[in-house]
Amino acid sequence: MQQMTYSQAVKRLEEIVKLIDSNQLEIDQMVEKIEEANRLIAFCNEKLTKADQEIEKLWAKGLQSEE
Questions:
Q1: pLDDT, tens digit, 9 for 90 and up, residues 6-63
Q2: CA gap 1, 42 in Å, rounded
C-alpha cells in the first residue's frame, strides 16, 4: 500500500463503499472489505497528517523570512 497515492487510496475506498452498499457481499467478504477500508483510511490519515506538517513548516519558514 505504500506505493499507493492518496488519490488511488480514496478511489479504492469509494469502490469498497459501493460494494458494501450493494448488499451483495457475503459476510466474510464484507469483513475483508471493511478491514481493507480501515487500512486505507489509516493510510490516508497518515498522508494528510504529513502534508499538514509540511505545510506548517513551510508557512513558518515563510513568516520567518518576512521578518
A1: 999 999 999 999 999 999 999 999 999 999 999 999 999 999 999 999 999 998 888 7
A2: 11
52 lies in some domain: yes
In a domain? residue 7: no
What is the gyration radius of the CA atoms in the chain, in angstroms? Answer: 18
Note whether residue 19 is domain-resident. Answer: no
CA gap 66, 62 in Å, rounded: 6
Query: Global pTM?
Result: 0.81
Three-state SS at 7: helix
In terms of residues, how long is the chain? 67
